[in-house]
């Protein structure tokens, strides 16, 4: 029996003259992989940052497990997030970056080796991250997100900049996590990849929710790309 | 809080740039003691007639008062502690682990304060040792009283604790690392130095003027009419510095708590 894990409630965010997100309401069910799709500038990243308490909404709100992110006790054990391929110091090794995060939340350092293995980065554990490729940076971001072994994962464009091998690796990685019953909300432009990975879809355009449902309900026999283009272009017209 | 503080201290220890900064603080402070000894003892040096020589207690005071001069590096380290988070995008991870930003800020302020103290104690020891070594080449010289060393030590410790905090506040306010560090260097080495030296009525309330008052040693008669009498005594000077720490802590809190992390 699934329950609502993440809920956007009339979320709005305005930056001066730009309304990035407008009365956005949507739900993400537990144990599902939900694709969060939308064109560039649609408001995906802003909505996710509002959800994680990094950006202050100008209206409404977003909840995880029935409360705001800031109300979560020990949030790193509940939610893991990848928001971009930065988020670690280039002058430090992968392991040192993970140690800093782990020590801030009293996580045993033995977990660091586990997450580095999990993302296939064990061989680069002691290398400074300034020499990392974009793919390695994405893996390290995922390792940081997995540090607290969270039940919910929020990933913003995790496939950005990945080569085909990296994309295949990411797909298998997400499928493995989904198989463990974790709730995953992932934004992406890789519609073909999303079709193979997600069970539910949220589509946002110009800050407004344009569609929400299972992938079958959204696609109705079409490819996800066709459905996405029709929904976003129709709403734009 | 203790876990967060450990994490902040780990950041400080792991970064090689911070160790280089520590080394530079020692070299900078050592120049502050060694250079005046060389100038005051040169036959035709420009400083020869301006200040008392090292054969007088006032001359020795003037030399060793500079041993607290590494506080610029405590300020820079405080700035780096804050601006590194924005420059490298680590603020996102930091605030995801600890969404209560005020707790993160308190940990950063404590870490910066401790780091500032370490920088100032290191540079004090480096400068004093270098000064003693340099003096051996210019015998005879007036004795270096323990009270003088204690006063400079006190000024070093308090300024280190305070300037680390001021740096965090400045970094939170400006965010751009290069702009914040450049501004701090220009302010400390040029603007503040000139105001403290030539407009004592204002300069004594600036951080450098307050640190100067905290050192509290007599330089005697000199060509620049530069006298400790014109500056705050150690008690009020300490209060002024603590006021700066409180002000910049408040700035750090207000800017960081409200800011969107895009």
TrEMBL record, chain A:
InterPro entries: AAA+_ATPase (IPR003593), ABC_transporter-like_ATP-bd (IPR003439), ABC_transporter-like_CS (IPR017871), P-loop_NTPase (IPR027417). Keywords: ATP-binding, Nucleotide-binding, Transport. It comes from the Bacteria. It holds the Pfam family ABC_tran. Residues 6-231 form the ABC transporter domain. One of its GO terms (molecular function) is ATP hydrolysis activity. Belongs to the ABC transporter superfamily. PANTHER family: ABC TRANSPORTER, ATP-BINDING PROTEIN. This is ABC transporter.
UniProtKB/TrEMBL annotation, chain B:
The chain crosses the membrane at residues 21-40, 60-81, 109-135, 155-174, 181-199, 231-253. Keywords: Membrane, Transmembrane, Transmembrane helix. The keyword Transmembrane helix applies. Signal peptide: none annotated. PANTHER family: INTEGRAL MEMBRANE PROTEIN-RELATED (PTHR37305), MEMBRANE PROTEIN (PTHR37305:SF1). This is ABC transporter permease.
């Amino acid at each position: 029996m699934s329950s609502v894990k993440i809920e956007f409630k009339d979320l709005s965010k305005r930056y001066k003259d730009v309304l990035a997100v407008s009365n956005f309401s949507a739900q993400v069910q537990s144990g599902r992989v939900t694709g969060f799709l939308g064109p560039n500038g649609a408001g995906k990243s802003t909505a996710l940052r509002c959800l994680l308490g990094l950006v202050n909404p100008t209206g409404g709100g977003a909840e995880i497990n029935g409360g705001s992110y800031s109300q979560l006790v020990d949030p790193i054990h509940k939610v893991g997030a990848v928001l971009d391929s930065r988020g670690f110091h280039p002058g430090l090794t992968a392991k040192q970056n993970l140690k800093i995060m782990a020590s801030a939340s009293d996580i045993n350092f033995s977990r660091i080796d586990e997450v580095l293995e999990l993302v296939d980065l064990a061989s680069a554990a002691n290398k400074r991250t300034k020499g990392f490729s974009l793919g390695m940076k994405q893996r390290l971001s995922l390792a940081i997100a997995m540090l607290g072994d969270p039940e919910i994962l929020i990933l913003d464009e995790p496939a950005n900049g990945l080569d085909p091998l990296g994309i295949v690796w990411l797909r298998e990685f997400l499928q493995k996590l989904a198989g463990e019953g974790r709730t995953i909300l992932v934004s992406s432009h890789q519609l073909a990849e999303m079709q193979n990975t997600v069970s539910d879809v949220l589509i946002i355009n110009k800050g407004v929710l344009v569609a929400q449902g299972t992938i079958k309900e959204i696609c109705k026999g079409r490819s996800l790309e066709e459905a996405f283009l029709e929904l976003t272009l129709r709403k734009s017209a | 809080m203790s876990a967060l503080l450990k994490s902040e201290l780990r950041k400080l220890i792991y970064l090689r740039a911070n160790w280089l900064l520590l080394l530079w603080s020692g070299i900078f402070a050592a120049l502050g003691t060694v250079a005046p000894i060389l100038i005051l003892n040169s036959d035709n040096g420009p400083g020869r007639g301006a200040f008392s020589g090292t054969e007088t207690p006032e001359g020795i005071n003037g030399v060793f008062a500079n041993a607290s001069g590494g506080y610029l590096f405590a300020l820079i380290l405080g700035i780096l502690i804050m601006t590194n988070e924005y420059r490298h995008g680590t603020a996102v991870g930091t605030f995801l682990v600890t969404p209560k930003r005020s707790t993160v800020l308190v940990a950063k302020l404590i870490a910066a304060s401790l780091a500032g103290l370490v920088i100032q104690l290191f540079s004090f020891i480096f400068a004093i040792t270098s000064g003693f070594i340099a003096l051996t080449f210019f015998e005879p010289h007036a004795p270096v009283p323990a009270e003088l060393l204690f006063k400079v030590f006190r000024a070093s410790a308090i300024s280190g604790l305070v300037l680390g905090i001021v740096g965090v506040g400045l970094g939170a306010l400006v965010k751009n690392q290069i702009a914040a560090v450049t501004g701090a260097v220009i302010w400390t080495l040029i603007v503040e130095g000139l105001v403290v030296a030539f407009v004592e009525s204002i300069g004594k309330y600036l951080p450098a003027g307050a640190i100067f008052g905290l050192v509290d040693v007599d330089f005697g008669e000199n060509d620049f009419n530069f006298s400790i009498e014109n500056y705050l005594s150690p008690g009020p000077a300490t209060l002024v510095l603590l006021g700066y720490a409180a002000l910049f802590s408040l700035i750090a809190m207000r800017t960081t708590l409200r800011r969107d992390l895009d």
